[in-house]
Fold these 3 entries.
Entry 1:
Amino acid sequence: MTSKDSTGKAIHEGNKKQLLYIIKTGGNVIDDAESLEVFLKDFASITGKKILVHGGGKIATTIGEKLGIEPNYIDGRRITNDATIDLVTMVYGGLLNKKIVAALQSLQCNAIGLTGPDANVLPATKRPVKTIDYGWVGDIDSAGIDPAIWQLFLDNGLVPVVASLTHDGLGHMLNTNADTIAAVLARALSKLYHIKLVFCFEKNGVLEDVNDEHSLIAQLDTKSYAALRESKKLFAGILPKIDNAFDAISNGVEEVVIGNSRLLLQLINGTGGTKLVL
Amino acid sequence: MTSKDSTGKAIHEGNKKQLLYIIKTGGNVIDDAESLEVFLKDFASITGKKILVHGGGKIATTIGEKLGIEPNYIDGRRITNDATIDLVTMVYGGLLNKKIVAALQSLQCNAIGLTGPDANVLPATKRPVKTIDYGWVGDIDSAGIDPAIWQLFLDNGLVPVVASLTHDGLGHMLNTNADTIAAVLARALSKLYHIKLVFCFEKNGVLEDVNDEHSLIAQLDTKSYAALRESKKLFAGILPKIDNAFDAISNGVEEVVIGNSRLLLQLINGTGGTKLVL
């Protein structure tokens, strides 16, 4: 091997993007202490760079009811009023985020809890009022995400744990869907890292028949997704998740898997869930 | 100038410790939206490296009452039971911390909210049960504080905003006094930085007569403090604050000032409050 080859190889390896897992989990794990414990043990055991994005669960509704904060709907769409943004800031950004971070620290995973305004990691804009005023809901400014701040955390061994809250840069917290945060973040960091985006939920993946966990579709491409969507067989709640996922792989994210929270390590090693391909 | 001198100077400057402000604020500011706004504007305008440590305010009690969480006392000492640690984690670590961070971001101050488990910045131990079980109360493991993680944030232009919560490394959040956190952190970081520790509260500083804001003691040394303490003229609530402060300056912290939150910039520039000296 010549020194030129050797140098060439070194340079090549230096430019090779490192793997980064972005893993989103939701209410079904958050609401059940035992499921959460198992999930966090699995998450902590994953080697290499990783980010956890979490939403809230039923606990926000329960605490909201005790505080007299009624869920607010207009035309069937949930509205985030003043009381609700304070509630989710407390519950998602405080109670849940810190419980997860403390649990991960006890598992030797050097977690750091983040919301949108922290180090300005997730800048957003309050959703403009068209027919409905959604209240304090944020659409992420994807171009405004600074990959360098994420890299600072990741390259120093920190594991970001992101609650589904953004901010408007004017002093207001904003409520943002956790699936969307995971997908937008994956796109923004895909220039720096080889991204594997994993959406965890209560089903084994995308199912041909929503009532049959064995009807798992191991691999889904845009064409077969269009056909499935046409047939109206898919569970309605999974559609935005799949749309987010296809959007991500169309924009630089290498791999997206959707599957069961209880099988996180199988989703990671490619033996579980539904893998999305273009 | 010889090249040796020049090199020597460079080395000297490289070793010179940079100034770091550690500023603690409390309930009187937190409870009043207008006071908080003014305080954060002042804080944001301070140039250079800085950390803000905040406690909670009456809002935790108000929210606790609505949730049916009664303040719990044994022999006049407040106890942090399961419900209370969840409450303060939500309110201090979520609602207040994120409101402060979002407000600072709107003032072009690159704040990052932290609690004990985040990046393990404040490791602690649950207070051992002697005569009283204080519940989920943490005594900081000062030797366990890693100055390098704080330096990573500070040297990258981030402004830590610390809620008065620590963790035990076993997955539990712990309630810790904000004055103590500020003092212990100041000691731990004094090896790396020239520390100015500022305790903000509702009075102008240490007063000879607690009812007369004009009886400010501009400078207090340990000897005159002992005499004042003896005379029992001092406001009882200020004693732990002063003890924390003297402990800090006995252990490497360069300067400690105690004074009014509304006069933060005067406390910073040395024209307000009580300066403590050994």
Note: Confidence is low (pLDDT under 50) at residues 1-13 of chain B.
Entry 2:
Amino acid sequence: MRDPEVQQREDIARFAAALIERLRARRPAVHCVTNAVAQNFTANVLLAAGCVPSMTLSPDEIGDFVAHSNALLVNLGTFDRERRKATERAVETARRDHIPWVLDPVFVDRAAHRADFAEILLTRGPKALRLNRAEFGALAGGEPTKSALMAYAHEHDIVVGLSGETDWIADDTRVATVANGHTLMAKVTAMGCAVSALVAACLAVEADAWRATAAALTIMGVAGEVAGAKAAGPGSFAVAIIDVLHNLDAPALAAHARVTLHE
Amino acid sequence: MRDPEVQQREDIARFAAALIERLRARRPAVHCVTNAVAQNFTANVLLAAGCVPSMTLSPDEIGDFVAHSNALLVNLGTFDRERRKATERAVETARRDHIPWVLDPVFVDRAAHRADFAEILLTRGPKALRLNRAEFGALAGGEPTKSALMAYAHEHDIVVGLSGETDWIADDTRVATVANGHTLMAKVTAMGCAVSALVAACLAVEADAWRATAAALTIMGVAGEVAGAKAAGPGSFAVAIIDVLHNLDAPALAAHARVTLHE
Amino acid sequence: MRDPEVQQREDIARFAAALIERLRARRPAVHCVTNAVAQNFTANVLLAAGCVPSMTLSPDEIGDFVAHSNALLVNLGTFDRERRKATERAVETARRDHIPWVLDPVFVDRAAHRADFAEILLTRGPKALRLNRAEFGALAGGEPTKSALMAYAHEHDIVVGLSGETDWIADDTRVATVANGHTLMAKVTAMGCAVSALVAACLAVEADAWRATAAALTIMGVAGEVAGAKAAGPGSFAVAIIDVLHNLDAPALAAHARVTLHE
């Protein structure tokens, strides 16, 4: 008989592997309200994963774009009035058409105004919240312990995907950690934003938001780890992670994934 | 005696080769109204081809910039009110000063509002229209057959440059195909936008808009093909195509170009 | 006894080397009002140098961001009303909180409106002005000779950092030249913008603005020179300069720097 934890780990890894193949087969359209710094890199990450990105923020167009998309990302970086207005229309359309969406509350620890808007958005039904430790602190008011993550997920009926040296993925009953990744991920701008876009893509092809979020963080963590082994610095790392993501197949993903389930 | 088709093919290839040398000698200034995702990559493509890009969208400045440019790109990606206003001033200046301009109707198949604006712009004298099959369908209402392309070119007094596995370049009397390129071109965001910018650059140094458009699509197709042979994925491909474009000389271009004229 | 000029050159080179280590130790937060083309590359350059970039332009947020930053960049590229308003709030906050800031008057030689705004900003206390020859001509009305640079620096109580084949750094009493760099630096968009961001970063950790500016131009010039030796063209150059900047240590910097003091 196999060790049950090893079994579960393989399940998640195998699931992430299956999901990247599903992305490539279904080519989901992912509309992104994201910051100016991240738009290009995010689009390239989504293309490398097999998706069809779109990025318009125009209030006149965003309804049409979201309505024809399979998932939506709302990222609060470089958040101006144009993006606020765009977000309101985009989220309204997503709710009406039952299109899953992700919130990435970039730098809510740096601007009170932005944190306030994140609180409002959390009441509008995002499936997942992808953020880092400082941003979690700003929203939840404490350290991201396992029980704090689960409590926050329960309170907001959301999956929390917390990026860090180890990533944590929690809903109100399940917690997993992903121990993949590479230190250079923190040295490339918009890396976290791109992870959030990949969470949106996975939500487009998987109804269980916790599994979708865990798969997205696993895929990006493994891609980062493989890319980091080839890179000479953050410049070549940003290039390599796109190549690796494009070429990542199920066996490589399953072989590299270090996922643990916490009961 | 040589086969006339081979002769013509060599003529276009040789013409494309001559044109890239003309770009490097004259260094045309190309002003771009383009989308937020494409601005950086487009500027780097133009620089690699020997041009001087500028990108401002400010209504207070764009008239000055266009007036001192040799060509203009109007790309409808991420099209907001700021870009609409900028486009109106830019096109007005281009018409007044007889500066050639290109229209790239990105994603007109995704938003009715955008398609409507493209129709208006088509009445304002663009020299060329660079687009893909889905966008052509949205504007012309059918498949891009040879006769449909020629009819559309005739009706709008424009050159049509249609990107795809094979590129088609048509005006009302001439049609050419370019069979260069690489599948990774569809995996890098803003690749089509950058091709359109190169069409604008070629219009700056060549009065025959059909030859200019054919040359631009040949140059980019060959650069993509050469870059694709070196790349490990879309990340390294996006880097390599800039390098290749910068280093592309007339003999390499003539050797790789696969252009056919269709009487 | 050593040649005093060689001695001084080593002093500046050693100072630049010390400064990059200070950046890595202190990790200054640098807020950037910069153009849409430059945002991503600038953020990656700052991250590679050990800094924490932020980029928001929203009038509702920029005060908070600048107040928590250690330096500010104001770059006039793609200058629209949003950026003008953002700049006014950012500079107001910087003045109130004594946060050093840099002005990069991109393309003031191309638009009268932009030159006028640069003149206003010069009265608001920037520590340094980073620009090229054409931009200096537009603002100062002449050639950037040593005495013209010193006179301009004196008149505006500012350090002038002039980029070119040789860089010049002048205040009212001191002038240095940096003979590092690579021709490919002019073939990558936003390279000058990124240099200006690095000037801001150095001002965050060094009170002598002339030494800070000289160090920033030396660091970037050396990084460009080392990257140029490895690059196959402007695409791979843009990647390599980020890698080199990330890996640059004090001995490499001191070994490559070609700085001369002009009494």
Note: Residues 145 and 201 of chain C are 27 Å apart (CA to CA).
Entry 3:
Amino acid sequence: MKKKNNSKNSKANGIFFLKAKYLDIKTGHPWIVIINEEDGRRFGIRPGDELVVKWKEKQTEIAVDTTRSLVKKGEIGVFRDIISRYRIKQGEFLELKLAGHAPSLKIIHKKLNRKKLSYKEMHSLISDIAKHRINDLELAFFIASAFDEKNFSKEEIYYLTKAISETGEMIKFGKVTADKHSIGGIPGNRVSPIIVPIVASYGITIPKTSSRAITSAAGTADTMEVLAPVGLPLKKIKKVVKETNACLIWGGALRLAPADDRFIKITRRLGLEPYSKMVASIMSKQVATGINHLVIDMPIGPTAKISNTKDIQFVKNLFLYLSERFNIKIKIISQKTMGPIGRGIGPCLEARDVMRVLQQKKNRPKDLEKKSIQLAGDLLELVGKVKKGKGKKLALKNLQSRNALKKMQEIIKAQGGDSKIDSEKIPLGKISYKLKSSQNGFVRSIHNKNLNKICGLLGTPLTKEAGIYLNKSIGEKVKKEDVLCTFYTDSEQRLILAKHALQKLELYKIS
Amino acid sequence: MKKKNNSKNSKANGIFFLKAKYLDIKTGHPWIVIINEEDGRRFGIRPGDELVVKWKEKQTEIAVDTTRSLVKKGEIGVFRDIISRYRIKQGEFLELKLAGHAPSLKIIHKKLNRKKLSYKEMHSLISDIAKHRINDLELAFFIASAFDEKNFSKEEIYYLTKAISETGEMIKFGKVTADKHSIGGIPGNRVSPIIVPIVASYGITIPKTSSRAITSAAGTADTMEVLAPVGLPLKKIKKVVKETNACLIWGGALRLAPADDRFIKITRRLGLEPYSKMVASIMSKQVATGINHLVIDMPIGPTAKISNTKDIQFVKNLFLYLSERFNIKIKIISQKTMGPIGRGIGPCLEARDVMRVLQQKKNRPKDLEKKSIQLAGDLLELVGKVKKGKGKKLALKNLQSRNALKKMQEIIKAQGGDSKIDSEKIPLGKISYKLKSSQNGFVRSIHNKNLNKICGLLGTPLTKEAGIYLNKSIGEKVKKEDVLCTFYTDSEQRLILAKHALQKLELYKIS
């Protein structure tokens, strides 16, 4: 534990010490500490300044608020977010210093002025982002600079990807490792928790790290978390992969790409992300986990994340370029997709769809099953398990034999979940609302982006039980007064917002 | 006052009421309220969500933190920043609602995707920024989109300027009004408080609104505030201008351009601003105050805000374009400037220089005087007070006769300051440090940007007494151990930071 404030020492190097005091506040966003106004005057610190905070081996930068009474002179108020993240103890002395501008801020300036960055510059910036030496606002400027694709060369995106993976944990799971990654935007496209057990059931190592939702209703991690913990420590993950040659975990807890975790938080709030950052984000985690065989599922459609051919080509080229630089075998599948896949949108509803497929229930969504088999087949071919053209058949075999289900139960159990869970026992939000059709006809399309937006208003992805169940899907016949879909949420407030949004955001096209 | 929570009503429209409780926290940055976790669950609100807060006629959006104990169920904790800004009363009921994404967020998306905006779109976005319906992070993305000059057409910058002025107060002071505006970046370039009294002493209406420092050590408003209050209400300003046909006030208090005030806060933290935003910011305030004769002082040099000829041409063209669209007579003066102007850098030190010139003290900075006379002369010519080529002589006349000083004393008195203040009585920071020369030679240059950075570390512009006095200026002879300049601050911490920065940031070039 740190020694108490030695005021002579303090003046010589700009460092001072304050005693941690817990404050019962949860911000859910930027990190903040509170000091007494008198200490603020004494140390020349004003509300909104940033402090470098050190304790034990750890260090971070935190913005400071001031108070006259909430904490006393000599104390520093620490919010619940920081306590739970960093395990600071009440009464512990924290070493503090006014933070100057991070030197890498000038690298952001350079990028805003459209100058090229070297690898050294990119690494120093990404490292400062990972260490919270660059604040959210500064970070937003860096992300914004990537929206113009001409501002980042392929080489720079390679640097970005490399720096993101190198500033996090690097793990090696085996010689031949496989992964599949879907580009979000298509609600309900929860193929990973089906593909992983199929591929793993053939002895292939497939350590699936996934992210939480960025702009969609649920990410694979959000969905898998309904079935088992996904925020496992590295040691536990290695054990899971050793036992089952697979896992389905959240990459963020692993700190595989801490800089990218911060990118995701920012772009989630903006509701928009540059393509180059998206590709770098995906590839950096492949690199960090030593993946060398990769299938990319890139749905394309009028309301998908990627909708025009120019963007598709840009993203494809970038994947191909990066996989070559990183020596990864890649296959990119782009399929036209007119609406969501499966019936459930939202973590619990999607987990139910997944389990319905693996348990081969009669009410399983056939489109989700079909797509999973195809992608699992592609992956089995890519790793050389089977000849080209024979993958799909092999995938289907272990799904129907329940070998894939057995593998999924092993994974759920190894990660600490209830392996006996039945699809129909997964809980849904207690407040619900049925949207009815005002006409007869056929469902021509379902608006993906609006579906995601309304799910967001209902509380996804943080509220797992929230979401939308599609009682009617594309191509199905509808009569007036038929239930088109069902909203689920845990809050009247959120239901009101969602119903209100329906006035502007069309979900179903029926004619 | 609002009625108390009617829970039936609440469920129908998503609105609920909580009772304001003062919380002794000052953030200095984003606005935050705190609610009890139980209310959070009840209303479906999580830490980091944004709420629309209404009371009396007012409305704003504020981020929410949660607590288990700091505020009780039914209460809402309001921070000191908000109380002082909005005068919310303890115990007052606030009307609350979960904020959806502001519709204008999609206009920011559009700009990030490099699409053109119509005036209607620009106005709706700028209006939402002015009303705090767009948060700081979203705003950062919009500002970032302006760094690529190709992303905003001249027409769009005109829209931006028009929207900024129209979403604030619009004032008319007279038929013929004059103004001069300097583009920052040159430390000590405090010509306005000298030009305004000179021009006003000839009966010209010159209502000078100025900004606080963005990336520099002091803005005109920061400097003038040393001499008199600058945050006057509109009614008072009109009285000052009626009495003295001039004023020297801070535009921000007037809410002439509330959207621009938010831009400035963000770019100040980033330490960088796009040129197009800078020009829009300047012109919007001219438009809002009905200025129709304008002299722009645009210093150019290797370390000035604008340093290369391409940028100079871009900024000049933009000024000319906008002044034509807004029907403003303009003259742009670009002079090569190799270092700071005057001797003092920082609000108090600059105010001392200004008063030394107006009081015609022997120790007055001659370069500052010369430049002020030239610009005042240009302005007198532009409004037609004197023939071309005769302005400088006229300006000098009223400076030497002390008519300008008399006018300045009138202005200071009308704004509520001490009109008898002597230049040598202006207070400076109690902690000081003399930087000495390590060699003999001549001062070849002084690094403007580094000067600003070190002043920032010393506490400018918020700490008025902080800054740097240049004992030696460009072209002057220096002997080893001579004092080059003197640092002033109010905090040992800040002095340490500034001295530390000297290792990397060169101030003087001597040879």
Note: The longest helix of chain B spans residues 309-325.
